Amino acid sequence: MGQPVPIPDPPGTTAGRPPLRDRLTVPVLAFGGILMAVMQTVVVPLLPSLPRLTGSSAGAVSWMVTATLLSGAVLTPVLGRAGDMYGKKRVLTGALSLMTVGSVMCALSSDIRVLIFARALQGAAAAVVPLSISILRDELPPERRGGAVALMSSTVGIGAALGLPLAALIVQYADWHVMFWATSALGALGVAAIWWAVRESPVREPGRFDVLGALGLAVGLVCLLLGVSQGGQWGWGSPRILGLFVATVAVLGLWWWQQLRTELPLVDLRLVSRPRVGLSHVAALLTGFAFYANSLSTAQLVQAPKATGYGLGLSIVETGLCLLPGGVIMLLLSSTSARISAARGPRVTLAIGTAIIALGYVVRIIDSRDLWTIILGATVVATGTTFAYSALPTLILRAVPAGQTASANGVNVLMRTIGQAVSSAVVAAVLVHHTSLVGGLPLPTLHGYLMAFGIAAVIALVASAAALTIPGDPSSDDTRPARDRARGSRDEALEGA
After folding, report:
1. Which of 173, 195, 332, 348 has the most C-beta neighbours closer than 10 Å?
2. 474 falls in which pLDDT band (50, 70, 90)?
3. Which helix (H) or strand (E) holds 6?
4. Are 277 and 394 in contact (CB under 8 A)?
5. How far apart are CA 86 and CA 81, in angstroms?
6. What is the average per-residue pLDDT within 243-254?
7. For the chain, how many helices (H) and strands (E)?
8. Helical axes 405-433 vs 446-468, angle rounded to 10°
């Protein structure tokens, strides 16, 4: 890989820059992360009604979720690499702009084909968090960086917790297009705020973009995630699903071979093979699985009819309010997780966080009939997720060169996405296997939910063990922000002249 090259600051971005913009960098980037999570969540309250509203089938409507998942998984590492090469702020504003355009298209149309395409555009926003974290590394001094990165990581849970009840309220009391007009306005505000408040990163990785590697990764990930997400509907032993998994192995195998032989690959696999990076990605996959099972199961459990013997019959708005405390906890504890990482190291924070996630599922197994224990268990899981998700990018930042932070964090987010997709498939399979007839309808039994909680708890404990095997930070780690290193390089060049 080429060495990171300092890029001179554009005119007007350093000298005479108003201090207010510097103070707003972190909150503006966090706002972008929350927007991304809200955008992924807002469609959930609409899913039961969309077949009627769009005149399409339930299977077609499900692609409004699947399309976002697939495009986000494909574009996150690609846009991360593009940010390292061409400018992180530039790519970040482009990703948020695509998200906003997709929201406008959803607001203007009721055609399911347009809606699916628009949701695929919105998947580009999945790259917002890794790009923002890379910018924070470049711009902030060490004493501010840990807390800012932790807050940025927590925006995923904060936005999801806020998006569900807010979207449900809009859908309940207004036309469903209003929801997308609201997100369009917020998206435009986010793009403008980032353009105004955020500096362009001075460090880039020179070279030619690996188009062939991007196409190979895209095809392999689409085959993998399509097979995982549609296995329950198409049948895990069906020719289509088996064909997708065979194609996944073949395409990703060829992609791996191509990446190792390319001078400037999309993903530096030699870097990934280092224990500090590779084990962090494994922990991200396991944590994504453990975290997502909570959101999936809680929403279904509390909305189940009371006739099941365990369900509470809550509305979608009430369901969102049950998950809201978890989002508040993630906001409040992000600075605490940063302090633990600073004192003990991010791998300890990750191990603690995933152990707390397992504890939350133990609470759910003990009692999932009373509302207060359901909220308590879900909040404990959110607490552990805060610690875990804040530690993962810090591990990556300390293990990779400055010129590869966006692409490396993009791969880490991709691993979380794959973990969430697998979690969705496993939880769905468990609940479908454990059903009983209630009022003539097959509904999951309480035993099915408890089994799903048990699986998630075991996965969380495995993630905790994996975190403890990650090697510690080398003493030579350069923690200066990239902007300081870039300025230092320019100063040295001037002195030499």
Report:
1. 348
2. low
3. strand 5-6
4. no
5. 9
6. 95
7. 18, 4
8. 150
pLDDT category at 95 given cuts 50, 70, 90 is very high
Q: How far is CA 125 from the centre of its chain?
A: 10
Identify whether the C-beta of residue 30 lies closer than 8 Å to the C-beta of residue 135: no
pLDDT of amino acid 146: 85
d(CA 130, CA 275): 20
Confidence class of residue 57 from pLDDT cuts 50, 70 and 90? confident
DSSP H helical segments within 434-481, as ranges? Answer: 446-468
474 contacts: CB under 8 Å, gap ≥ 6:
none
Distances (CA, A) of 282 to 16, 68, 315, 484: 44, 23, 36, 32
The amino acid that residue 328 corresponds to is V
pTM of the model: 0.82
For helices 405-433 and 275-303, the axis angle rounded to 10 degrees is: 40
DSSP label of 11: T
Over the stretch 395-418, which tens digit does the pLDDT of each residue have?
998 888 877 888 888 899 889 889
H or E segment to which residue 327 belongs? helix 316-344
From the number of C-beta atoms within 10 Å of its C-beta (0-12, 13-18, 19+), residue 439 rates as exposed
The beta strand positions in 171-210, using DSSP E, are: 203-204
Contact at 8 Å (CB) between 230 and 42? no
The span from the CA of 334 to the CA of 324, in Å, is 16
Q: How many CB atoms lie within 10 A of CB 317?
A: 17
Single-letter code of the amino acid located at 291? F
Q: Residue 69 in contact with residue 123, Cβ under 8 Å?
A: yes
- pLDDT-derived band at 132, boundaries 50, 70, 90: very high
> What 3-state DSSP class applies to 462?
helix
Residues recorded for the chain? 497
Type of residue numbered 227: G
